[in-house]
Amino acid sequence: MAADPLTRVFAALADPTRRDIVTRLAVADATVNELAEPYDVSLQAVSKHLKVLGDAGLVSRSREAQRRPVHLEAEVFELMTAWIERYRRQAEERYRRLDDVLRDLPDDVAPEP
Amino acid sequence: MTTTGTHQTQISADPDVPLIRIVREFDAPPEKVFQAHTDPALVAQWLGPRRHTMVIDHYDCRTGGSYRYLHVSDGNEFGFHGSFHEVRPPSLIVQTFTFEGYPDGVSLERLVLEPIGAGRTRLTATSLVDSFAARDAILASGMEGGLREGHERLDELLAG
To answer: Which residue has the higher pLDDT, B16 or B10?
Structure first.
């Protein structure tokens, strides 16, 4: 399942370790060894997380020398958050209109019998 | 209106099921928020996008009832309809929702209103659709275009 690009991104970010990795890569590129350091897991496990993030288009590995740092594809991340933000803003606009409706409703309105 | 911070709409997309969850708090008790969702004259004042005129064909918000409304803009009409599956004042509305431009699609909408003290209400609205692709399409488009463009941009980024 999850052939849809946006779904892969959501699924990739559903895991707290992967969200943490993304947060750290937002600061700077890092090698698998560096990324694995703070976690009590094997390099293999971290590589697995990176593969999920890579399949979702969120990170890439450069071929640069032996080091092969992991790089966050910030554009994909920002595009996804921009989409959700637009949807959220539409809902917020709708609910601000509801705020207005509620403010104008008389207080003595009784629930329907 | 007082502060805006406590009123901001929160959106989350479930990773395991094709569901969108919206949470928002209101400065009114559940009875009023419920009324604003069931009285068609009130619904028409807030539900539709601002640049569209909302025309209610019928809106019979009770268990077993149904609704249909149109958003009209520049001669274009967008119809929506569904059934009210369970309506329980002042805390629960479960309904189906179909955009008539895509009549095979249907989502199951669940609205829960909870009192949070001081005459305020927390609204939780979940929307369950039948595929992740449909869920993401809704999230990406906000039902109002831009979807294809968004997917193309994402395809480009992912291909690059």
So the answer is: B10
Residues from chain A that touch B24, judged by Cβ atoms under 8 A, are 91-92, 95
pTM of model > 0.80: no
Query: Does B68 contact A at CB distance below 8 Å?
Result: no
- What phi, psi does A24 have (nearest 5°)? -70, -35
Is A5 in CB contact (< 8 Å) with chain B?
Answer: yes
Mean pLDDT of B37-61: 89
Q: State the average pLDDT over residues B57-64.
A: 97
Whether the pLDDT of residue A97 is over 90: the answer is yes
- How large a percentage of chain A has pLDDT more than 90? 21
3-state SS assignment for residue B82: strand
